[in-house]
Design a protein that fits this description.
- By secondary structure, this protein is an alpha+beta fold.
- It has one domain: Multidrug-efflux Transporter Regulator, Chain: A, Domain 2 (Orthogonal Bundle).
- It is built from 3 helices and 5 strands.
- The strands form 2 sheets. Strands 1-3-2 form a 3-stranded antiparallel sheet. A two-stranded antiparallel sheet has the order 4-5.
């Protein structure tokens, strides 16, 4: 049975694709999912997919200044 062809603009990424997107090892992605820092969807018993927007949500911006300020905490 052949795998369906996925487009480059797909919103759901595999563990490896997510790791490549962030520039980390796929075990880092697994750890983020286990710690519930990153949301993932399980499809069947073994397939895990992560939304690209959830990967982007891991990052917060930093505003520099005398003491600096994390955008989500100011």
């Amino acid at each position: 049975m052949a795998n369906p062809v996925r487009s480059e603009n797909s919103n759901l990424l595999s563990l490896q694709e997510s790791a490549d997107y962030l520039g980390v090892h796929k075990n880092t992605i697994r750890n983020l999912i286990t710690r519930k820092t990153l949301k993932a969807q399980r499809i069947g018993s073994r397939i895990v997919r992560i939304a690209r927007q959830d990967l982007d949500a891991l990052f917060s911006t930093y505003e520099s200044g005398e003491f600096g300020c994390w955008q989500t905490k100011c």
